[in-house]
């Protein structure tokens, strides 16, 4: 019978190989995200035909979400239910916002985000999920009480929206009445974001994702940089 101690080096080698493979996958995913966002930034900011690059915005959003899900640990039923609830809630909030003008102010969506239903792009739920999940995971690293983490995550979401708004208006993602972004928009965003983050903290699933920091940072820099060029 073989000595069990002789198997330890093989097990350790297997663990190291698995860790190295996971690291390579992460680097590939980060590279793909950077490629898409840098190409989009250069195309929208400096190309003579930014409309060509706008066509890839829905694809970039779906790619980002797909990669985030791929690096989510333990994709349990609770995690999938969280994804569905946030996407549906985000879409419904936008429908209410469009119809009533009470949540965010008076605005309407353009054609840049693709197919619309009830005057709202279907992909807007994907956007709410990406931002909610990314901000929630980032805040979860902080040693703070749950509600305080939710507040921090909501602030991260609003901070990203502040960078998105000028770019979104310029490229016809949506437009505001009189071309003025109302303060109500950011108040509404904070309120909805806080509710979603409280929900995020209550759902039981792993809140560790090595891709999240880059996803949040690259989106922040993408929209902030484009805003500086306008």
Describe this structure in words.
The chain is built from 8 helices and 4 strands; from the N terminus they run ααααβββααβαα. With 230 residues, it is mainly alpha-helical. It has one domain. The strands form 2 sheets. A two-stranded antiparallel ribbon has the order 1-4. A two-stranded antiparallel sheet has the order 2-3. Strand 2 and strand 3 form a beta hairpin. Helix 1 runs parallel beside helix 8 and helix 6 packs across helix 7. The longest helix has 39 residues. It comes from Hymenobacter amundsenii. This is Carotenoid biosynthesis protein.
What does the main sheet amount to?
2 strands, antiparallel
Mean pLDDT, to the nearest integer, reads: 91
- Global Rg: 20 Å
**pLDDT under 50 segments (min length 5)?**
none
Oligomer: single chain
Compute the number of structural domains: 1
**Structural class of the secondary elements?**
mainly alpha
* CA-based shape: globular
Helices, by number, come to: 8
Strand count: 4
Strand order of the largest sheet: 1-4
Beta-strand content estimate:
under 5%
Helical amount among residues, as a percent range? over 70%
Spell out the helices and strands N to C: HHHHEEEHHEHH
Report how far apart the termini are.
73 Å
Can you give me a brief rundown of this structure?
The protein is mainly alpha-helical.
Summarize the topology.
Elements lengths: L7 H39 L3 H5 L2 H14 L6 H24 L6 E3 L6 E2 L2 E2 L2 H17 L5 H25 L3 E3 L6 H20 L9 H18 L1
Antiparallel strand pairs: 1-4, 2-3
Helix pairs in contact: 1-3, 1-8, 3-5, 4-5, 5-6, 5-7, 5-8, 6-7, 6-8
Features:
single chain, 230 residues, mainly alpha, two-stranded antiparallel sheet, globular
């Amino acid at each position: 019978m073989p000595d069990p101690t002789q198997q330890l080096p093989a097990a350790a080698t297997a663990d190291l190989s698995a860790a190295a493979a996971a690291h390579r996958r992460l680097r590939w995913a980060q590279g793909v995200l950077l490629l898409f966002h840098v190409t989009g930034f250069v195309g929208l900011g400096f190309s003579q035909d930014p409309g060509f690059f706008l066509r890839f915005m829905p694809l970039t959003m779906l790619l980002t979400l797909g990669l985030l899900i791929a690096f989510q640990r333990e994709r349990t039923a609770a995690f999938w239910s969280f994804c569905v609830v946030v996407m549906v809630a985000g879409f419904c909030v936008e429908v209410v916002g469009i119809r009533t003008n009470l949540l965010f102010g008076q605005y309407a969506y353009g054609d840049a985000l693709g197919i619309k239903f009830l005057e709202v792009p279907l992909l807007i739920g994907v956007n709410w999920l990406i931002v909610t999940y990314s901000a929630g995971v980032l805040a979860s690293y902080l040693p703070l009480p749950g509600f305080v983490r939710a507040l921090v995550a909501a602030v991260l979401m609003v901070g990203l929206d502040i960078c998105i708004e000028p770019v979104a208006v310029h490229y016809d993602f949506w437009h505001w009445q009189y071309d003025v972004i109302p303060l109500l928009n950011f108040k509404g965003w904070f309120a909805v974001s806080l509710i979603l983050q409280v929900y995020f903290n209550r759902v039981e699933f792993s809140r560790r994702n090595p891709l999240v920091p880059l996803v949040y940072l690259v989106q922040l820099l993408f929209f902030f940089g484009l805003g500086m060029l306008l």
